[in-house]
Amino acid sequence: MLDAAEHRALRRALEIAADPAVPLGPNPRVGCVLLSPAGEILAEGHHRGAGTPHAEADALSQASSSAAGPSLRGATAVVTLEPCTHVGRTGPCADALIEAGIGRVVIARRDPNPVAAGGIQRLREAGIEVELELPEELAAAAAALNRGWEHGLQHARPLVTAKVALTLDGRAAAADGTSQWITGPAAREEVHLLRTTCDAVLVGTGTARVDTPTLTARRPDGTLHSRQPLRAVMGTGTAPSLPAVDGAGEELRLLTHDPSAALEELFSRGIRHLLVEGGPIITAAFLRAELVDELIVHLAPTLLGAGRAAVEDLGITTLVDRLDLDLVDASPLPSPGGPTDLRLTLHPRHRTA
User: Fold this and answer.
1) Could you report the per-residue pLDDT of 263-318, keeping only the tens digit for each?
2) Dihedral sign computed on CA atoms, order 244, 247, 250, 253
3) 279 appears as a binding residue in the annotation
4) 149 in a known ligand binding site
5) What is the structure's pLDDT at 244?
6) From 6, 56, 150, 294, the catalytic residue
7) What pTM value is reported for the model?
8) 188 and 326: one domain?
9) Secondary structure letter of residue 22 according to DSSP
10) Which positions are catalytic residues (predicted)?
């Protein structure tokens, strides 16, 4: 089990791994903290994207370049992902830790990539103690850190999160077409934060034409977050270009109505987590194709009685064919002076037959 210093170090490693300056996409985010035998932080490092040093190498470099040049003999390395064993653009991190004289390694998550895995065995064969037993909270945080990357390794397509905002009677817009704003400021702020965690955000040509969304991730004061998603528009119909915004993500047109084809192209471009925000038609298309991995619903405590449905026809004609979802979380989103919306996080139960 982890001692108090290792517990703090792992929290710090997870924090630096999630640095918003680090690009998302086809490479995992990894953090590393080196501790002295007395539990003092000697150095820390993190991976900054393809072609840059891995977290362990970065931390070892920081330690060797420090003024004191501390010896790492018997030190502990706390890392968020199993050290790699393969030679790519950088050398094997497991070997680097062994050569540095590290005596113990705390690992938050095994590497699911068969090309890079094997670091745990190599470290143990070298006589290094390896700790994998973590408190549930830290294990969950480590799993969430690279869930898009891990999903891509397993399924060869991006993780798909679909987000919808609707009233209690399932409406996404009023009868006259107005839809801004069904939910309150807290829900809207959360959507902008959600965009910063995704590689790309996708809408359909209809949404692009009618709503002219910027698809940027903004703070409450209107300034842009440092991390911006690719802005994708899907559909064969004509649609205007998205509004030009300095600092916004690249715009991409996906000339297809087929969600599978869209995901294939996005995956080839390094997209590992896609946020679908594109209205009832696009949302229904991904749900029909069973390509939604996570559905986030912002539910407003209001009624319209008429208007556009939040999800279009799913091709379901009888109750036994309904699409059931597992409720993962339900949290209120209070807005000062406004309504308290409810955020539901759900996982669709895909049919196995």
Assistant:
1) 999 999 999 999 999 889 999 999 999 999 999 999 999 998 888 888 898 888 89
2) negative
3) yes
4) no
5) 92
6) 56
7) 0.91
8) yes
9) S
10) 56 (proton donor)
Smallest Cα–Cα separation from 260: which of 248, 250, 268? 268
C-alpha distances in Å from residue 213, one per residue of 171, 180, 306: 20, 12, 24
From CA 274, how far away is CA 328, in angstroms rounded? Answer: 19
Is 149 among the domain residues?
Answer: no
- The answer to whether 26 and 50 have CB atoms below 8 angstroms apart is yes
What's the CATH number where 67 sits? 3.40.140.10
Does residue 150 fall inside a structural domain?
Answer: no
SS3 letters across 172-189: EECCCCCCCCCCCHHHHH
Would you call 130 helix, strand, or coil by DSSP?
strand
Q: Is 64 annotated as a binding residue?
A: no
3-state secondary structure of 264: helix
Residue ranges of the chain whose pLDDT lies below 50: 353
Predicted local distance difference test score (pLDDT) of residue 125: 95
Asked if 112 contacts 85 with a C-beta cutoff of 8 angstroms, the reply is no
Rounded CA separation 298/341 (Å): 7
Indicate the DSSP class of residue 320.
G
Tell me how far apart the alpha carbons of residues 46 and 54 are, in angstroms, rounded to a whole number. 7
Same domain, 178 and 135: no
Nearest Cα to Cα of residue 210 among 173, 185, 183: 173
Task: Mark whether 174 and 38 lie in a shared domain.
Answer: no
Among 92, 110, 144, the domain boundary falls at: 144
CATH code assigned at 344:
3.40.430.10
pLDDT at position 353, please? 45
The label of the residue with tokens 């916004």 reads: 248
Residue range(s) defining the domain that contains residue 81 = 4-144
Tell me, what's the pLDDT at 297? Answer: 96
Q: Is residue 312 annotated as part of the catalytic site, yes or no?
A: no
Per-residue pLDDT tens digits for 303-337: 988 888 888 988 888 998 889 999 999 999 987 77
- 93 known ligand binder: yes
Q: Is residue 113 part of a domain?
A: yes
> Pick from 344, 307, 349: which is nearest to 325 by CA?
349
**Residue indicated by tokens 């399932």:** 170
> What's the structural domain count of the chain?
2
312 annotated as a binding-site residue:
no
Question: Is residue 151, in this structure, part of any structural domain at all?
Answer: no
Same domain assignment for residues 109 and 255:
no
